[in-house]
TrEMBL record:
Zn(2+) 2 binds at residues 451, 454, 468, 471. InterPro entries: P-loop_NTPase (IPR027417), PriA (IPR005259), PriA_3primeBD (IPR041222), PriA_3primeBD_sf (IPR042115). Component of the replication restart primosome. This is Probable replication restart protein PriA. The lineage of its organism: Bacteria, Bacillati, Actinomycetota, Actinomycetes, Kitasatosporales. Residues 1-29, 176-200 are annotated as: Disordered. Belongs to the helicase family. PriA subfamily. Residues 10-26 have a biased composition (Low complexity). Keywords: ATP-binding, DNA replication, DNA-binding, Hydrolase, Metal-binding, Nucleotide-binding, Primosome, Zinc. Binds 2 zinc ions per subunit. It comes from Streptomyces amakusaensis.
Amino acid sequence: MSSEDERPGEPAAGGPADSAPAAGGPEQLALIRETVRGAKVPKAKPRTWRGAALAKELPVARVVVNKGVLHLDQYFDYAVPEELDAEARPGVRVRVRFGAGAHRVRDGRREGGGLIDGFLVERRADSDYGGALAALAYVVSPEPVLGPEMLALARAVADRYAGSLADVLQLAIPPRNGRAESRPSPEPLPPPPAPAPGSWERYASGPAFLAALAGGGAPRAVWTALPGPGWPEELARAVAAALASGRGALVVVPDGRRAARLDAALTALLGEGRHALLTADSGPEKRYRQWLAVSRGSVRAVVGTRSAMFAPVRALGLVAIWDDGDSSHSDDRAPFPHVREVLQLRAAQEGCAFLLGSTSCTVEAAQLVESGWARPLAAGREQVRRAAPLVRTVGDGDLARDEAARAARLPSMAWQVVREGLKSGPVLVQVPRRGYAPRLACERCRTPARCRHCSGPLEAPDERELTCRWCGLGAVDWHCAECGGTRLRARVVGARRTAEELGRAFPAVPVRTSGRDHVLDAVPGRPALVVSTPGAEPVAEGGYAAALLLDGWAMLTRPDLRAGEDALRRWIDAASLVRGQDDGGTVVVVAEPTLRPVQALVRWDPTGHARRELADRAELGFPPVSRMASVTGRADVVGAFMAVMRLPADAEVLGPVPLPVPPPGRPRRPGEPPVGEVWERTLLRVPPGSGAELAAALKAAQAARLARGGTDQVRIRIDPLDIG
DNA sequence: AGCACGCCGACT
DNA sequence: GTCGGCGTGCTC
């Protein structure tokens, strides 16, 4: 199996003098084997380990190379030179020669194969690789950054999302910064005392959840938070309870604004030094310093945005996500993991508690409760009634009948509520962002039009023909499944102008705006009109007196499966900033009162809404009950990919359908076809339980195609977002 | 992706 | 004979 006169670092075809074994036992020599092709003998560059001995103990380093290519999604073994023995510990960053010809010898010099980054995952006594091992080039830094828990998590995430381990590690481990590493991290503080329940008392099982956490338990809960400003403190208490048990805690929020609020609440409750804030707002050095403090165990609690979901918290006791319906919880880099899914994996893997909190409720959260994986953590009706504002609706029909309203494009009831509200404080006006693409819906009852074959959304690209966005089949003689109507409509209204007109109608009142470009954090409690797009609503001192939610139809008819859920979430977010109804808080939503999300807002019942959506999705074969994946790329490439792919037996193929060409002038986004190419998207759907099989099949097909050298890649996305 | 190896046609 | 075309396959 091995010929003993070969040693890396020695000349290839050298005589006995050249190849005389240096120090090192026969078991080390056995590592270095004849290459299959014959007389070629590996040869290290002088600066690596030429002539050097191997490490005496565990001379093999198993390395994950930092190349996201799928058919390289495997470990590679390297020899550990003696002088790297001490530093080459599991978890450190290394550099290795990698590439065809890395073992080729010319003029007694090893050549080819550039240096690439990797992580050392394990030291071993021997290798199961049949060829000759190359040596580690060097250890980048002795800091161990990839522990066994993180490795297992990254592996699970890669499998779940049909991605490579290296891709996930790139999301999980921040780039190195030498200065940050050279600084010592602070001494860890002893666990704090268990916190009092505080406002968790408002939830029937709130104090019990906290007590279980503090006692070292691992409860899992979907928490429907009461509207109002209480959530940061409540999350802070959950973190404190986990810390009190001697374990760590991790909370992921959607954006820096909310991270700052939670940061403040934690500092108020626990003081400085017990938690790290991991957001993109701090620069790379500071961020890495914080990350290292967590990795080294100096800090045991983490608050952060998306990428903090991988933070290497020691002895994790609690993972929590706030507002899981916010789209920024979905990573925008391959393989596009979602914070909720990653934290679920962590909770299962590390046996820790799980808390999903939101004032609203996603279908996925409802499914966690329905499946029994998590328990509901909600307040009673009386608490909800006290905390939530009064919600009134104005339908489009009312708008049409109301003479004055038609002129001003606002129903008179909305006028009254605004006028009344301005007497006692600020009034919030929520206006949908421009660019919301409404979906085709029944003219009579507004039910979105769906394909009768696969239940995909219908569209009318040329105004005449109806086709399905999922399977591409034409829809002839469409009629509404709900009311039997045969006419469709899709209107677009200048929503922003409505708000501006509203501002002009109250000239004595200051108008402030908050939106994409300039987001206001807070406004004073004085009377003012605050016009905001969803998600940018400032907090009002003392709460808003009233809120006006305009053009609900535009939010409800977006071509997205989550349109209803999203609209409800954004309404609830805005309405949560309004005073409770006992204090006169009133919300007017301009939308069809019969629609499910509108009714859920009136009853303030986001959980019921999500439960009914979940039942519908199960019936129609939609995610998250079924698992879906999209395959996108040039038409011929998608075709070739699908030809290679071995589908799970229970998989359904929808499409392919051509992708819309992006409007000229705008820079092309990833996933959009370049000019002159026709791209297609095929959707794959499998029933519950076959998700892992689907991901594995996609990955295998991608690897097979890549190995064949094609530069023509398809984009694979598990749980695609824009499929509605 | 790179990069080398291998098995075919036109040149000194 | 042998230089070099780029098709195919490997990278510890």
